[in-house]
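Researcher: Let's try something more involved. This one mixes different molecule types, so please make sure each is placed in the same coordinate frame as the others.
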Amino acid sequence: METKPDLNIDRSVGDFHYDVDYEFDAGTGLTEKTIDYISDVKEDPDWIREFRKEALRKFNSMPMPTHWASHDLENIVFDNIRYYLSQGTQPKRSWDDVPEDVKRTFERLGIPEQERKFLAGVEAQFDSEAAYSNIKAAVGEQGVIFVGSTEGLQKHPEIFKKWFGKVIPTGDNKFSALNSAVFSGGSFIYIPPGVKVKHPLQAYFRINAENFGQFERTLIIADEGSEVMYMEGCTAPKFETSTLHSAVVELVALKGAKIQYITVQNWSANVFNLVTKRGLAHEEAEIKWIDCNIGSRLTMKYPGVIMKGRKARGEVISIALAGDGQHQDTGAKMVHAADETTSNIVSKSISIGKGRSTYRGLVQIGRHLKGCKNNTECDALLINTDSRTDTYPAITVRGKENACQHEASVSKISAEQIFYMQQRGISEGAAMSLAVNGFVNDLVQQFPMEYSVELKRLIDLEMEGSVG
Amino acid sequence: MSLKIENLSANIGDRQILKGLNLEVPKGQVHAIMGKNGSGKSTLAKVMAGHPDYEVTGGSVTLDGLNLFEMQEPDQRARAGLFVAFQYPMEIPGVTIANFIRAALQARLPEGEELDAVEYYEHLYKKMDSLKIDRKFTSRAVNEGFSGGEKKRCEVLQMAMLNPVYAVLDETDSGLDIDALRIVSDGVNAMRSPERGFLVITHYQRLLDYIVPDVVHVMVDGRIVMSGDKNLAHKLEAQGYDWVEKEILATA
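Model: All components are placed in one shared frame. Result:
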């Protein structure tokens, strides 16, 4: 077969890796010793070391959730995974100081360029630790804190400790327990009262090593009346063996604050992506998750919002693309815990070939509440007949003065439709891209421009790659 | 220069539909194929376009000497200049007419070249106006929820925008009322040119009053069995197809 090296690089943007010498390596497998190693390297305070060990006990005692989730989870061999790899715990403030091998990875992914163009701050994580972290001076002067989780816990313990692990308790699920035991990296963000950060803050998570687990931990606190948009991107090279990504993300929006959290992930097809994301919205606060899941072997992710204060608002916009051999198990959780809270879930999934998409939703409105509203829309697009899609909405609405609306649809792109488009001169891959982009278009219009362009490009590449 | 079909045979599954079909449409002419249901007219259009359900078992189709069957993918054949207006155009949910035609035009440009959006819309609106298609249709999904007539007009719009060298119109008159038939025919007639050939497949003579053919062919059981001028169409309309079959049997 003819080889086209340039094209291959393009096709899977993140599929490359450089050999890197790691200064710190916790080895394979997970025991108390692994925890001590991580805590020593990171110079954790005692309460964190204890927090980690308690989490490890919970992780070990909890069963895999295969009574409802995919049995593919059983294929994760925890003993074969490396839980901590880094070249040091202190991120650099200038790209010039980032080690060459790491720097060229991020340059190839276009991160420094994006930073110059449109970002207020960037954190670039390479395996377990951030290699680079910086915010624009003007943003820092407003009192905005944007650092890694290690630095956050060491330098801002008064804010960190108050909220850490409060939105998502350690034992929320087996993978939040795992993350709590070995977490490293991720962002800590604090926005002072009334500060509206104009440009987005961005984190980029890069897995470089084989047999590796990335466990970043992100905590964002938006103080009263503040606003922030945070975006994360992720890639990993394709290895023969599986890689684990298990993050925990906690958001706290205090009275009247607004947080928008955007994910555009493009994991390679060997990654188990098992992430817990939840936000706590106080009175009149607003939390919006925009979640685009492309790639991975199995993604399980259900971003949630707990609307704790009156008139709080939660929103999840989710796009999942399951290519051949992939399973996107995604959805949303909306917990209404105060009067007049409103939530909106829009989920669009695309399954191609033997790809599989599952939507799981949970909406709870308690009996004693009034004036609460939820709207849920789940749309699925199936491209060719092998695809599978499932919807599991769990909606519990009690009390007479609350309203809930649920709509679901399934549409199909058949071989006949692809043929029709091809007869007009459009290639098979471009025809599928066109159908997929058309399907998600109304959601993508809500993204910042740079990200909608990026998402469109990822969809095009994925479709091109899915043509036999 | 012609669209030349030589000894073409094709199957769907185990069933042979085309049985050694010969036909030549010189550039600049309009040829019509008439025939009963099940004679293989629509199969001919799909086989030329490269529909995956059909297997070509013999013969060839060339576009100005270019062998169509050396091009595997339907989109390659389309870009080589072949257009098929389908009897039952597909609905493409979520893809607007404007984006669809734009992608089709973009696919014809060399790599790295971008279609000029302003020029494109000017051109598109002009063609829509002449086909009496409301400009609002640009933002509607291709054929989704369209009436039969709207679908056919949308096919002709695509043809007008893509400017093919050879166009095959498969039962473009079906489902059209008399006004829509006139609009669609005017659209096709406006495209008649020495640089283009048309193959018009139809069941009824009616369409040929509007799109007057240079040659009329009769198809029976996967072959062209008789050819003549436009008067042949009138004769078929008046007398049906039985006499054709009798005549073939007599000469066989």
